[in-house]
Design a protein that fits this description.
By secondary structure, this protein is α/β, with parallel strands linked by helices. The chain has 16 helices and 14 strands. The protein folds into 2 domains: 184 residues, NAD(P)-binding Rossmann-like Domain (Rossmann fold), CATH 3.40.50.720; 205 residues, Dihydrodipicolinate Reductase, domain 2 (2-Layer Sandwich), CATH 3.30.360. Helix 7 packs across helix 10. The chain is globular, with a radius of gyration of 21 Å.
């Protein structure tokens, strides 16, 4: 391993998710033991408050000052650590300077963005430089998109072992979910809607299921886009659109491309939320579709977007209490079918609020996995997905330390 002062620097430690992540890292690793890490942000006083909130275990936690727009300070952070984990979003507004600094310094990086247009811009601008410097850049290491990306990865492993072939078509369905949207996630979503409003050309990009796949990927299979209420015969339930599908599906297709089309050249993948059977399930699906449509319309119009931001949605830095986070959970179901007609079902479950507690634990383990388990010689530099750069190593950490379960569903 390259000799650095720190294994991980948490950039954005004073953000809401950053504070949860700092607490998780302290509880899991201390501050100067197996994993040497530091907390960074632009405000020294706020960093002191975060450190104080962590108690005696964090007495020796190093605090580093750097503004998201100060390229010199960001490069200084990068030169001290193996991995930068960033919670500073919306990333389209604040994220590029840190990605640039990591790429220039050859420092590995992970974040929890779900902003497809921004990811595409970063890949287009910095992929070649990352390959040259050896920096491994891994976006989407929170609820979007680790459960989906590793869920499909896990299902395909099981299918190949059981049937000798991957599943040509995989569906992910949200069976149960309990939690709140994070203020940062909502701010990112509203910013994407604003970008599309200002640049209509982005609509075509967002509609492309292969938008963040490498150039020359060659995929042409028509993808199902669940944008209305429908009945799913494979799950015997009504379903509605899933708000995270737009990012999760893109990450899964990029994983297929980066793994040498290991899921197949004609691989299809879609996501939705199950709402139940019968009249009640149908009403729930149409109701959910109407709510999402109304929200997106309101977000697209400047006056109503102002009302949403000011009075309705949580603001960046806001979120539920620790008790509410503990009461959160999610249960994701996967159904896969091979080209020969064999089928398999798997599930991925998480034990905390998906947008806060579970996301922080996944992001923390992804950062530590990059720092401790993935050597520079294991993977070349470039823009990776969680499953393609960390795979089994990350899954093992998530099961042991982050409350996730990956399991095959038998007898269905």
């Amino acid at each position: 391993m390259e000799d650095k002062k720190y294994d991980v620097i948490l950039f954005g430690a004073t953000s809401f998710v950053g504070q949860i992540l700092a607490k998780y890292l302290t509880e899991q690793f201390g501050v100067d033991g197996e994993v040497k890490w530091a907390a960074a942000g632009r405000s020294g006083s706020k960093l002191d408050m975060v450190k104080d909130s962590l108690g005696p275990a964090a007495r020796g936690l190093p605090l580093l000052i750097a503004d998201a727009r100060d390229e010199k300070a960001l490069l200084d952070l990068c030169r001290q650590t193996r991995v930068i984990v960033s919670t500073v979003g919306p990333y389209a507004l604040y994220g590029e300077p840190m990605v640039k600094a990591c790429v220039e310094s050859g420092t590995d990086y992970c974040d929890l963005t779900g902003e497809v247009p921004w990811i595409k811009r970063m890949v287009s601008k910095y992929e070649k430089q990352a390959e040259a410097s050896g920096a491994k850049i891994v976006h989407c290491c929170g609820f979007d998109s680790i459960p989906s990306d590793l869920g499909v990865y896990f299902l395909q492993q099981q299918a190949k072992e059981k049937f000798g072939e991957p599943c040509e078509h995989v569906k992910m369905r949200v069976r149960k979910i309990r939690g709140e949207f994070s203020g940062g996630t909502v701010a990112s979503l509203l910013n994407v809607v604003k970008e599309v409003r200002e640049n209509p050309a982005l609509r075509k990009e967002l509609a492309n299921p292969y938008s963040i796949c490498p150039e020359g990927h060659g995929f042409s299979a028509r993808q199902d886009n669940i944008n209305s209420a429908k009945f799913d015969p494979d799950f015997q339930s009504w379903m509605a659109p899933f708000v995270m599908a737009g990012i999760n599906t893109r990450v899964v297709h990029r994983s297929n491309a980066l793994s040498g089309n290991s899921y197949g050249d004609a691989f299809r993948y879609d996501e939705a939320v199950l709402t139940g059977k019968g009249v009640k399930g149908g009403a729930g699906a149409f109701g959910m579709m109407g709510f999402m449509g109304g929200f997106m319309l309101a977000a697209a119009l400047k006056p109503t977007r102002w009302v949403l931001e000011r009075y309705v949605v949580p603001k960046p830095g806001e979120g539920p209490s620790p008790e509410s986070q503990k009461k959160g959970m999610y249960d994701l179901r996967f159904y896969g079918e091979t080209a020969s007609g064999q089928s398999i079902r798997c599930k991925v479950t998480g034990d905390e609020d998906p947008g806060y507690g579970s996301t922080a634990k996944m992001l923390g383990q992804a950062a530590v996995c990059l720092a401790k388990d993935v050597a520079k010689i294991d993977k070349k530099g470039g823009f990776w997905t969680p499953s393609t750069v960390m795979g089994d190593k990350l899954m093992k950490r998530l099961v042991a330390n982050s409350g996730l379960i990956f399991d095959v569903i038998e007898n269905q």
